[in-house]
Amino acid sequence: MIGTKFQLKVWNFLKTIPKGSVKTYKEVAIAIKYPKSARAVANACAKNPYAPKIPCHRVIRSDGLLGGYSGRGGVRTKLRLLRSEKVDI
Predict the structure, then answer these.
(1) Residue 45 known to be catalytic
(2) What is the tens place of the pLDDT at every residue in 68-84?
(3) Torsion angle of alpha carbons 17, 65, 4, 52, nearest 10°?
(4) What is the per-residue pLDDT across 1-38, written as a single tens digit (0 to 9) for each?
(5) What is 5-84's CATH number?
(6) What DSSP string runs through 6-49?
(7) Cβ count near 52 (within 10 Å)
(8) For residues 67 and 25, is the Cβ–Cβ distance under 8 A?
(9) Could you report the per-residue pLDDT of 38-59, keeping only the tens digit for each?
């Protein structure tokens, strides 16, 4: 994978999120030991060129809304992917 150290840290964590579950950007930030970097996590997800193989679609906003999706089809694809994994969104 090619990216900054921070992006790689985020993307590697995303690969640990099990199919059918979601984390918030804040939860990811805390998990990678950057607790005040939820926005930076969102930016790293937005720059993920490996979607959906690296599942940034499994990361949502703290208020329960989907947030963005950098893969083809945007948020509609994110919603479709989550529903296909039986996530109740």
Answers:
(1) no
(2) 998 889 999 999 999 99
(3) 50
(4) 999 999 999 999 999 999 999 999 999 999 999 999 99
(5) 1.10.10.10
(6) HHHHHHHHHTTSPTT--EEHHHHHHHTT-TT-HHHHHHHHHT-T
(7) 15
(8) yes
(9) 999 999 999 999 998 999 999 9
What are 59's two structure tokens?
Answer: 């990361």
Tokens of 85: 């994994």
Q: Could you tell me which of 2, 4, 50, 59 has the C-alpha nearest to residue 28?
A: 59
Q: Which residue has the tokens 């990216």?
A: 3
Helix (H, G, I), strand (E, B) or coil at 54: coil
Amino acid at 34: Y
Q: Say which of 56, 60, 81, 82 is annotated catalytic.
A: 56
Tokens of residue 60, six digits:
């949502």
Sequence letter at residue 48: N
Whose tokens are 């990678």? That residue is 32
